[in-house]
Amino acid sequence: MKIVSQVQTRTPVLAISALFAFLLILFPDRGAADNKPELPPLPEHLTLPDCELGPECPIPFDHLSNQESEPFLFATKLIDENHPRWSQFEDALEQFPDVGSCLVEDEASKESPNLLLMDWKKTGYMIGSRVCLFRVASSLDHPTLVQQWMKYHGFRVGDIQPVLYPARPEKKTRFVGSWTATQYRKRNPHWFVSLTGFETVRSWAYSISFNSELRVMDVRPAGSSTFNLSDVSAYGSK
Q1: Which of 22, 68, 148, 151 is the most exposed place for a label (fewest CB within 10 A)?
Q2: Burial, 65: exposed, middle or buried (Cβ in 10 Å; 0-12, 13-18, 19+)?
Q3: Structural contact between residues 139 and 216, judged by C-beta atoms closer than 8 angstroms
């Protein structure tokens, strides 16, 4: 009876903690919002075009990022054979060694590809997308362009906010782009939801963090589901 009582006591505490963590990502501290950092203007070569961004109107980029020049970072730390999460990311890093490998087939080998055209069917929405969003954001080389990229993909994009997280001092600023459950499921259908009409996903988001030099330090999927308030990994996410 004592063990059951402890489990019953811990369950709501864990649920509340997970919910609080998720809300912190989607709704940063208001005091931090009052100190919203000012970004440097876009350099001339990254100026947004007059046309509406899309397949016929590419987004400008600074360079084409790859694993050799800009190794993938997990929570500001290099992922390599010595990292405890290496097995989790090894396959994705092999599949997506550069930003071109993240794009649709017609763009992948171009010298000047349209970085808007990421192949979500190939990357999925968990590990692969995390690696590829890191590649894309690093290539764009400016948070303003990353925000525009996410808006093109239908994300509700928040403002750049300062990061007040002593455990990760490399993170200085970040923003969050979020999809509703409907937006997410339209892009990532699953037979169970189609068959039963029972939707487990409540929302889906990515948080992208930068250091003081505006280099990408972390890309973090964050979502809520019926079963888990801080991580949506069921029904088709990968």
Answers
A1: 68
A2: buried
A3: no
Count of C-beta atoms within a 10 Å radius of residue 58: 18
Place of tokens 């990968």: 238
* pLDDT at residue 217, as a whole number: 93
pLDDT at residue 6, rounded to an integer = 41
Query: pTM of the predicted model, to two decimals?
Result: 0.78
Read off the tokens for 96.
């997506």
Residue 36 pLDDT: 74
Separation of CA 67 from chain center: 17
Low-confidence residues in the chain, pLDDT < 50: 1-11, 13-18, 20-24, 29-33, 229-238
Compute the distance between CA of residue 167 and CA of residue 172 in angstroms, rounded to an integer. 12
Task: State how beta strands 77-78 and 216-225 pair.
Answer: unpaired
Q: Are strands 201-210 and 161-162 parallel, antiparallel or unpaired?
A: unpaired
What 8-state DSSP symbol labels residue 2? H
Tell me the β-bridge partners of 66. 98
Asked if 99 and 116 touch (Cβ cutoff 8 Å), the reply is no
The letter for the amino acid at 74 is: F
**Beta carbons of 188 and 106 less than 8 angstroms apart:** no
Q: What is the enclosing helix (H) or strand (E) of 196?
A: helix 191-196
Pair 160, 39: CB distance under 8 Å: yes
Q: What is the pLDDT of residue 204?
A: 77
